[in-house]
Predict the 3D structure of the following.
Amino acid sequence: MQRPRDRIDVGGDGDRSDPSQEARGAPPDDEAPTDAGARTARDEGSREDDDHDDETEPGLIRRHPIWFGLGTVALILLAVAGYVYWAAYLHPYESTDDAFVDARQFTVAPKVSGYVIDVPITDNQHVETGQTLFQIDRRDYEVALAQGQAQIASAQASIQNVDAQIEGQRAQIDVAKAQVTQTQAALDFAKADAARYKDLATRGAGTVQQSQQSTSNLEQQQASLQRSQASVIAAQKQIGSLEAQKASAEASLATARAQAAQAELNLGYTTVTAAQPGRMVQLSGAKGQFAQAGQSLATFVPDEKWVTANYKETQITDMRPGQRAEIEIDAYPDRKITGRVDSVQPGSGTAFSLLPAQNATGNYVKVVQRIPVKIVVDAWPGDVSIGPGMSIVPTVRVR
């Protein structure tokens, strides 16, 4: 009987199958990829099932919508409360950009008229107290001062002349009084003599002629006494007239002294000096110019400056004098200076304007008013130029 031949797998590559694999019952080589594909398909199916389970399972927000809503509301309330607490207690500052440098600048003008002969300053120059700004021609005022001094000397001479006359008159009064005394003595003697001769004539011891002669002598002495007394009165009245002349001369002296003092003041006014430290701006006076009294020749900006900050009326609730402030200068952003609140104006800025608003008529629209607050700076920077009108941003700590 003939043995069957071994089965030969005729493949694409002509390889034989391993008989040992058939003996162990292992699957052939062409079946292995099929099992791997099956496992891959099972894994993908498992992942698709997991994804499907995730999609079908509800989220946390959907499972607890009420708690989520309450939590959201609580967070909003907490944020609002935190902001209110920050604004009321943790933010104790009030700031405004409606602020500027302020000063009491004024015009420089001579008090007397004349030609300007010297201007030893220039524009924007810093000057100290007593420094010469303008020089007016002094010659006319020197002449006026000399005239005043001459009038003083003339009045003094008049007074001395009257004093001499008064002294002479007083001497005449003394002479007149002595004459009165002498005449009084002669009168007394004449009275006694007349009485004696009258008595003798009565008794017949004397003559009537002697009695009449003594009586006549008595009358003459009485007339002499009256004349001497009148001379004394006239001399005394002359003293009164001389005293009046002296008073007039003294008044003339006072007038001359006043005129001389005014002339001396006018002479001093020819030199215009700085009354305080500051800067000269808008210089218009020039050498050779005829300046009238009161004519503006320049503007003077004192070194004493401060900050005027126009805060809203809702910002000054807790603002008080003495509170500290930090100040930023727009022109010099790198500079920060400090100061303090000096005062708060008792009224809005519009209330003191030239034409204040009249809200009693027409339609009224409420507008938040601005209140000027004066802030005094501790120390201005000395190496930069700062003047009135420059913008400032002050921040005041109000709590």
